[in-house]
Amino acid sequence: MHVSEILNELGEERENYFQAVSPAIIQTSNFSYPSVKAMRETLQQEFERPFYSRGYNPTVAILRQKLAALEGTEDALVCGSGSAAVAIAVLGNLKSGDHVICVQKPYSWTYKLLGTLLERFGVETSFIDGTEISHFEQALKPHTRMVFLESPNSMTFELQDIAEVAAFAKRHSLISLIDNSYASPLFQQPHALGIDLVIHSATKYLNGHSDVVAGVICGSKKIISRLFSEDWMTMGPVLSPHDAWLLIRGLRTLELRANRSADNAAFVLSGLKGHSKIESVYFPFDESHPQHTLARKQMKRCSGLFSITIRTDDAGIERFCDSLKHFQIACSWGGYESLVFPVAGLAIPPEKRNPLIPDNLVRLSMGIEDPKLLLDDLLLALEQV
Known about the structure:
By secondary structure, the protein is α/β, with parallel strands linked by helices. It has two domains: about 5-250, Type I PLP-dependent aspartate aminotransferase-like (Major domain) (Aspartate Aminotransferase, domain 2), CATH 3.40.640.10; about 255-380, Alpha-Beta Complex (Aspartate Aminotransferase, domain 1), CATH 3.90.1150.10. Helices cover about 35% and strands about 15% of the residues. The chain contains 14 helices and twelve strands. Helix 3 runs parallel beside helix 10, helix 11 packs parallel to helix 14 (about 370-380) and helix 13 (about 315-325) packs antiparallel against helix 14 (about 370-380). It is globular. The protein starts with a helix and ends with a helix. The relative contact order is 0.12.
């Protein structure tokens, strides 16, 4: 199915809703039935029919169809945040005594889930470099159950060879998960490379308007239906019908926004590279990236997110960020607006910071503004360092 058809038509069934161009928001908690028999039959199919909106809601169902189709999977679940999506996908596939292999620099709340919370329940996690398949092979234990990837991660952009790790997981009967938020389904499709579950912070590129917090899990109908009935329904990390509608609206422009953001990143990077105050650039498609060949092999494009390190101290980083006129200082990314996020801005003393992430690193998220405006803003701010 063509991407445009997925984004603009799939699942909308306009003939059932007065030919409305925009999908209906079914803002209800409950659904009623003409008979006890009808209610009983629906309850037995709650994964696919409306009974109570914690489970199935028609507006949310439209979104599920679109997200699954974008990732090339059979089905999807949506959650109230990306962290909730990670938690459901991880918890739903582990038990006490299991072991997880995870890349060493995942999203901070993923790290906390695997490294702290699950440890309390007898789940062990090995955090590895992950840039070579040998790292996974060396970390394998008899009780390993899961491999968790984030390729690339969203700070320093290390990658894993997705197809190679997926094959490794299958050889050892492990379930494989990946956070695909950075690339979006437009630029990378891990399920086609053999990954079992693909997770997104839908807050980022999928929504793209910085007005919804959401997450998604994409996978086979067998796994998704099991997660739905056993874990998702129990913990109830629901997305409201209105937020689902906002995400559907955001998806309309996904191709336009993602490509514009990627174009802006390429333009801005070309203007920053070689600047005397730029120490290094972190961007998978840049030739200086040690894995740029792998990036081009498994990704169609990079997104609009990249990092730089600046030759200065914390005070200089602060002057740089405070001088920007067309970038907002904020922690997220993937929206229509351009953002700057400095490691030095974290409320963490230098001695307690992650040694794998440089203190002078600044992450930049390119929005859809004029690229020359953004580049000129950054060059002027560098003069304040």
